[in-house]
Design goal:
21% of the residues lie in helices and 46% in strands. It is of the alpha+beta class. Residues 1-23 form the signal peptide.
């Protein structure tokens, strides 16, 4: 069987099975209440470190480069944050589109038009 024939079969199967090919897709988190329900009392982790997003608008955590502190607010359907790591200057406010899939949160920078990062939600 040729490579083209195998590829054609795989594509046909994926198109025939509802939900196939959507694994790992993220649902847009549109409200502050929905966001807080996901992160309240939780720790978010990635390979660079971890953080907690607190209901009072504060962010705290740790990275390989030092302590992370910051503030956040909800704006429309975006999560806006400004953080500082260690003694470095603040990074500036960046409003991000948030998505959720299972225990993963996706943060897409620059109002959903920039690079994406994923963090794992845990207790």
């Amino acid at each position: 069987m040729t490579y083209k024939a195998i590829l054609s079969i795989v594509v046909s199967v994926l198109l025939a099975v509802p939900g196939a090919g959507e694994a790992g897709s993220f649902k847009h988190v549109k409200t502050e209440a929905e966001f807080l329900a996901l992160v309240r009392g939780k720790t978010l982790s990635a390979d660079w470190g971890s953080m907690q997003i607190l209901p009072n608008g504060k962010i705290k955590g740790k990275t390989k480069q030092g302590k992370l502190v910051g503030a956040w607010q909800w704006n429309g359907a975006l999560w806006c944050r400004n953080v500082r790591i260690g003694k470095k200057p603040e990074r500036g406010t960046d409003c991000q589109k948030i998505g959720v899939s299972g225990n993963q949160l996706q943060f897409i920078r620059e109002q959903g038009r920039g690079t994406a990062g994923v963090m794992v939600i845990s207790n």
